[in-house]
Amino acid sequence: DTVFSNHRAHSHYIAKGGDISRMLAELYGKADGCSKGRGGSMHLIDLSANFIGATPIVGGTIPLAAGSALASKFQNKNNVSVAFFGDSAVEEGVFSETVNFSSLHKLNVLFVCENNLYSVLTHLKDRQPQREIFKIAQGHDILAFQADGNDVLKVYEGVKKALDHIKSGKGPALIECMTYRWLVQCGPNDDIDLGYRTEEELIDWKKKDPIKRLKEKLVKEKIAGNDLLEKIELEVLDKVDNAVKFAKSSPFPEKSSLSKHVYAE
Predict the structure, then answer these.
(1) pTM of the complete model
(2) Which is the most buried residue in 18, 29, 215, 251, by most CB within 10 A?
(3) Which parts of the chain are beta strand (E)?
């Protein structure tokens, strides 16, 4: 299966099996990066993980995922192409065009809309009519439904349902995952002082932290104890620390390689 992402691509890349050390090296613009230092944070590509590409252009990779699915159809393959995008991407004409084309040709595409309610500083209600996004896709006669994007297991169940539908030859599917952005639109800082959303709203959504909810469920149902979960967290932190060291020690691309890996007429 192939994955196409947006400007928040890091988690998608890791989930697809990407190498975290090579990802961080790419963020540093280093030669050992997954895109050899050419892509940076928002243009990750790693063909070894079938992570075909990410772009900050809103809606930019939606048609690329459909193109990948069309190529697979010509090659008689049954793999799925997944397109991740935010709620504002459905306001781009290419979204409806792609869903329509994919429905018409029954392409193996899974559209995943991560609806965090805001496009930079503007709430969904100020940008779109009062209707759920998944209903737009239903209008193109494809399987489309909403899921709690802050519940790991609900997302898993939804994706399984969608993939079973797609791989049985019934055409594409769309999942609208309801979630929320805690921090500023771009960067690691808080932005509650900007006044476009309330502190109460932010606090309510933080209570729905998907990692915390999963942890509590694992402990409550005695699937895993706190000791094991703490051990996992420490292992992950150690892995991240080692990845940062790898990225910092990796060399920058040689100046002589400037024209390589770049297409030119």
Answers:
(1) 0.94
(2) 18
(3) 2-5, 51-54, 81-86, 109-115, 118-119, 122-123, 143-148, 173-178
